Amino acid sequence: MKDQSVIHDLLVIGGGINGTGIAADAAGRGLNVLLCEMNDLASSTSSNSSKLIHGGLRYLEYYEFRLVREGLAEREILLKNAPHIIWPLRFRLPHRSHLRPSWMIRIGLFMYDNLAKRATLKGSKGIKFDKNSPVVDTITKGFEYSDAWVDDARMVVLNAIAAREKGANIMTRTRCSDAKRVGDIWEVTLHDNITGQKQVVKTKALVNAAGPWVTSIFDEALKTPSPKKIRLIKGSHIIVPRIHNETQAYILQNEDKRIVFVIPYEDDFSLIGTTDIEHIGDPATACISKEETDYLISVVNGHFKHQISSSDVVATYSGVRPLLDDESDSPAAVTRDYTFEVDAPQGKAPLLSVFGGKITTYRKLSEAAVNGIINHFPDAGKCMTAHTALPGGNFDNQHNLQTSLQRQYSWLPRKIINRYVRSYGTLSHKICGGIKSLEGMGEYFGAGLYQREVEYLIEQEWAVDLEDIIWRRSKLSLHLTSIEKSELERFIEIFNSGIKVKSTIELQQRKA
């Protein structure tokens, strides 16, 4: 175990959307930030969402007006700052009068349209379904409104890149095993999950943004009771071949008052979820149950002409959301709001803990969190995240960027360029820059994935293993064959071995 003499301003525990958002905000204000994540970035809740940036239409029923208003306002900011990974999506709501009367839905949509300013999105309207509609013939009316789609895991990675660009140190596969106050400094023990090495780092302030593990940090590292209780709510999703060819997503009502989204996904698929059920135990063990699969299939088959079965499911995922325990009877009714607890005794190093939240309001949460401890750093600047594009998002629209990249890299297939635009934006130049032909991209692994992109993800985006690359940095697992995945995994292992050898040589040279 080695003791480092550097004293950081802020150490953030947790590499999900809240942790990386806080790191990016704080680093942007000039703080010296260190972030540790015990697994990969976005390896839990933040990569297992419904992939939506939305105010939460259904939250209006639970009178969460402030939360909805804040979400709608953030929706506009994020659409502007991350046009590569976030884009508008229209939703269709088939009307079933025995569940909610049409007047109630109209009022809800009117509020949804007007609770916050809409700069880019179209308002809601009533629609009719005819014989050519994908919904069953018994459903003849509905409504349509706007929200937005997001690549959730990439938003986490881009926030980590933004933090790094401002000087933050991002340490993945690194667990916080102990944290103790020594006067006005925190001494934090970090454990490298790959090498097994430990080190003690010092920081003036500590942020617990561990998501579903927020209370575990109190139990295991801080060794003190958590000031708040959370409920772990599991949301599961299934992915099936495309149910319909329309560009719109669908939001389906159900008798139990839960709603299910059917979202166009990765061109060829439909993403269906979520379930909202209580989860007991380790969040890492969360997986879809047969009952959840059957539930989602039943809701879909009650609305669409195209019927699906469990044999159509090509992939599933489950995420556990750490929601504030507001003693609601139904998991679906548990608040999606967030709160902070600041523990800052006189003369002692401050601790800020994050409870609750949702992906749409991460930027606002991050700003509020840093504001909660900024008085300990009088030289810090102001928050700039509302007016700063996420890395790769400095362009006007996807079509123009696609045209520009096609002109500059005419040898690159259009389908790959389109994926690059929706994953990397202008960061695409870091992959293609200096390359003159498709052969220059190196080994081909299938589904438009070349060696150059894999190397970029490992060297610049903290990817370590196969799942990091084909599920979180991309969704290419849906398109790669098992043989292609095996070849890619072999390459990753060889490439990582080369990095380790190079690092060892460089370390020995420095010592010499």
TrEMBL record:
Protein EC: 1.1.5.3
Keywords, sorted A to Z: FAD, Flavoprotein, Oxidoreductase
Catalytic reaction list: a quinone + sn-glycerol 3-phosphate = dihydroxyacetone phosphate + a quinol
GO MF term set: glycerol-3-phosphate dehydrogenase (quinone) activity
Family matches, as InterPro entries: DAO_C, DAO_C_sf, FAD-dep_OxRdtase, FAD/NAD-bd_sf, G3P_DH_FAD-dep
CC cofactor: FAD
Every FAD dependent oxidoreductase domain range: 9-327
GO biological process, one term: glycerol-3-phosphate catabolic process
GO annotations of cellular component type: glycerol-3-phosphate dehydrogenase (FAD) complex
Superkingdom classification of source: Bacteria
PROSITE patterns: FAD_G3PDH_1
SUPFAM superfamilies tied to this protein: FAD-linked reductases, C-terminal domain, FAD/NAD(P)-binding domain
Ranges for domain Alpha-glycerophosphate oxidase C-terminal: 383-496
Record-linked Pfam families: DAO (PF01266), DAO_C (PF16901)
UniProt record similarity statement: Belongs to the FAD-dependent glycerol-3-phosphate dehydrogenase family.
Name of protein: Glycerol-3-phosphate dehydrogenase
